Amino acid sequence: MLENQPTKHFILVDPYLKDGILLAKKLLSIGYYVSVIGDTANSEVDVISTRQSSNNDLEILDIKNGCINNIIPNNDLKFSKKFYVLNTLKSVNSIFTVPNTKENNALFAEFIHGIERFAIENQIEICYNKIHHCELSFIEEIIDYLNSFFKNNEKRLMVNSLDIVWFVGGKNMFIDEIVKDILDSNSDADNFSNRITFRDLLKIYFEVLGAELEFCGKGEQERGVIVDYEEEILSLHGLGSQKIRLGNTVLKINDLHDSSLFEKLKGQNLNSLDSNLSAELEGKIKRLIKKKIYNNM
């Protein structure tokens, strides 16, 4: 490394900047030089006021609509200690809708290849977050989407990936755990309490409806199948739907056409990560599902 170059330079890659900027501010506060790469045009934060509030210590590099070549000339990147990629979900649509706009994760898939190549060429460690953050309000939006499925004419519920794990709770606690992960390569995602997998959230939802959902198959061939149901409970919920029948495949993975895109969208989240919900939080989620179902009857 050349003289006078930063020795503790972390690059946080976050297409929508929201979590990336919060992480950067935390790392700056403990003495690290940090840059955040994202798309300022589609950012969920006010970039100008963010720069001003951090006394311009926070460097935000604009990928300009997905083009990684816009930031490669920045020579400081070559002296980074680690790239940390935040596989963010901008909205509920990014879970269910085939990515073809910046409303979902197409942006992430576009430029992450360039980030990886740059890191490999310059022998920079690259890591990926394993867990997303969400509030109960985001879970509520997912429930609304699931409820809408029973009101439309679609035969199956289509998702982009089932390999998503959420930490449900306070943002500050989530940020603190991610900082530990960035600074310590031996940090374990199992340290996150109150986490829930997308599969288990779907199972809980169908359980409240009065049906049992099981998953079979792997990768793009994975699907959710109804293996049991209680007609009386379904009727109480106003769901005498033909979609809930024994052996019905009620959920499938979207055909993303590009296998590399599928790999990116399924994320670096590990299949081995299980849910770790407190009884209190699980109860809150079940009550929220019941409330949303009854409100939509």
Key attributes of the depicted protein:
297 residues; alpha/beta; Rossmann fold; UDP-galactose 4-epimerase, domain 1; 2 domains; five-stranded parallel beta sheet; four-stranded mixed beta sheet; 12 strands; 37% helix; elongated
Brief characterization of the structure:
The protein has 297 residues and is an alpha/beta fold.
Q: What share of the residues does DSSP label as strand, in percent?
A: 15-25%
CATH superfamily of the largest domain, called what?
A: UDP-galactose 4-epimerase, domain 1
Largest sheet: 5 strands, parallel
Which geometry do the CA atoms define? elongated
The rounded Rg comes to: 21 Å
Strand order of the largest sheet: 3-2-1-4-5
The structure class reads alpha/beta
Uncertain runs: 1-7, 264-270
Distance between the termini: 64 Å
- The CATH topology label of the largest domain is UDP-galactose 4-epimerase, domain 1
User: Helical stretch count?
Assistant: 10
